[in-house]
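Hi there. Long-time user, first ticket. I'm pasting a complex I've been working with (about 474 residues overall). I'd like to know whether the download I got is complete or cut off, because the file seemed smaller than I expected. Thanks.
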Amino acid sequence: MPSLEHIANLVHDWLNAQFSPGLALFFEFFIIGVLIIGLFSILGLVLIMMERKVSAWMQLRLGPNRVGPKGMFQTVADTVKLIVKEGMTPDGVDKLLFNLAPFIVMIVAMVIMAPLMFAKNFQIWDINIGVFFITAISSLSVIGILMAGWASNNKYSLLGAMRSGAQIVSYELSAGFALLTIVILTGDLKISAIVNAQSDGWWIFKGHLPVWIAFVIFMIAVTAETNRAPFDMAEAESELTAGFHTEYSGMKFALFFLAEYVNIFVVCALGATLFLGGWQPLHFGTGTGFNRVMDYIPSSIWFAGKTFFLIFVIMWFRWTFPRLRIDQLLNLEWKYLLPISMFNLLLATLITIMGWHF
Amino acid sequence: MGGGSLIALMIAAIAFSGMAILISKFVLKATTNKQKGEAYECGIPTQGPSWIQFNVGYYLFALIFLIFDVELIFLFPWAVVVKQVGWLAFVEIIIFFFILFMGFLYAHKKGALQWK
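Hi, the file is complete. Here it is re-exported in full:
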């Protein structure tokens, strides 16, 4: 069975044989663009469907079941509906910023895909500062949100954007510390190096205590960073209508929605890469039959499986915990998570220097 | 792939969003009237603009965040070399965190982390 790596190499060789190197590179970029747009569309459809089905399952109801088999085409129908809805620009808004904000959010969501490793040796650009790149770019999305909220000239939007800004920047710190734990253990920022370091066991097994703490903190922090319940203060429906995208409608609203779901995918993919071994299959011991069977499953399936498991966990949070108040939210970060993650970092340093991880 | 891929992704994002918005512009016939252009604030007529000065409690959090974020940037190069440097790195990070934590406690004592 050809792996994604083989297909990518075949396309690369074929393009280089047919065209001059410059032109071949241009075509490769074009293919990447088309593939990423395709990935975005598919992710949007799949994740929204998954969200609704998981919600329905958690609440003992059926969920969408009319359009297509088991309601599988409900999201497609919703997208068509959003296309034929008017993308309104209200009179009072700052027109430039109002229309620019969805673009900014989308650009951030797309550029952040570059260092992600989707399968064995299959990624767009193996940046040597991979983890740092993701941290840096993901903090840009708050600009798009603040822009949308401020430009809307609506009190709810403004308050939602302010809340969202405070929340995202606060929880970024804990997420950053959690990522640093893995960087310390691996000694490299490259995503490929981090995945390769886990070939004899995922960090969550090898790194024991500090990695467990970091993983829990990471999951809490990214839930808050993507504005998911129980931290969905930015768009608390019962308080702020819809938060920062109250004034958005039609396709512009759909872009915000899509970017939100893609961001969930990105952070879960990052969590799977750093803590759960990326595309590395599950191994026990050395050279047993079990490991051979696990190796037989393609690396892309492993990556997707781990990522979607983490996405499921985040959806599970939504139906388990009640929404926090804004002061509780900030207290949780600044008085609990931040000191804990700082001491966890010291613990990880100690364990790395002593070589106490497996 | 190299840095060009970032530009390719950026162009892809702009093309995708632009196409989506353009397509929806083409398929529908938009109408405008005065009521439609008003801000949506739950049906009640809007009272004044939103672009006014008001007390945001998040300002202090944003300031403390700035300190910690800069510190996080300093930690990345440190984290890469911990394995090679060894105990010296541990001592350094304890000193670094001690200073940082004192600042954090000061901010806490001053009530900067209190939600008012």
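A couple of notes from our side: The radius of gyration of chain B is 25 Å. Chain B touches chain A through 68 residues (CB under 8 Å).
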